[in-house]
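thought: fold this chain, then report.
action: predict
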Amino acid sequence: MNIPITIELPETVFSALRRSPVEFVDEMRLAAAVKWYEMQSVSQAKAAEIAGVSRHAFLEALARFGVSPFQITPEELLEDVSRD
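observation:
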């Protein structure tokens, strides 16, 4: 079930970003999902759902935004490897 939400924005933001209102909303959803994933607030699957894209498309978006698809620090990785 989708819940409609209304956000009021100045008309100038669409032309400044060279996006139609629909494209702007799609990009805003994607940007929010990427940021929440980067902050480790949501999983990849949940972020893709929030963004309204496939998991594959979300991984491509992470690359476009310069965000690592891995939510593990180098220290955590070394610790995991040393346990095995």
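thought: worth noting. The chain has a mean pLDDT of 91.
final: tokens above.
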